[in-house]
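Re: the 203-residue chain
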Amino acid sequence: MYVMRKPRSGSTTTSAPYFDPRHNAKVLKVLPGEYVATGDDCILSTLLGSCVSACIRDPQAGVGGMNHFMLPDESGAAGESARYGGYAMEMLINELLKLGADRHRLEAKVFGGGAVLPSLTVSRVGERNAEFVLDYLKREQIPVVSQDLLDTCPRQVHFFPQSGKVMLRKLPTVDRSLVAADETRYRSRLRREPVEGSVELFE
């Protein structure tokens, strides 16, 4: 069983699962403003520029999840969307608890916050996202067992929620414009309302 949610505005469509024969597993893509919680033996996948994803699991209960937020936080009703860090973290944790996780057993791995978009360098969106997720997890007393944050590169993340393994691929320069274009497109929506590279394992 898995739970996937998208922004209340409906501006981001949820991708259909697909099968990855290399890992013999179903893959669920997590787009900006979405979060997924699951007890299935599957892979959660996302592509990050200045956005951040938290991969959170309860190793004893065998449930885990991933979010993908675009902005650190927002107060008021506008912040009640998974595109904002506070809401994305709260909702992911709540869904994991519903699936049988114990808050005291939760552990996290966090990724993203790259300075990929030159237009966002001044506003430090990537840095603010990275700072936010670490501060949030520290405040909630959820240990961060591994992280790969900041830098200037986009990242492709595959999270295996049952084992906790993460496969991280830092994208080469040629792919950065594609990731930047995706983030620009998603950020425009906010205002209106296998690749090459080495793979790192986070066991």
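Residues 6-13, 75-79, 190-197 have pLDDT under 50 and may be disordered.
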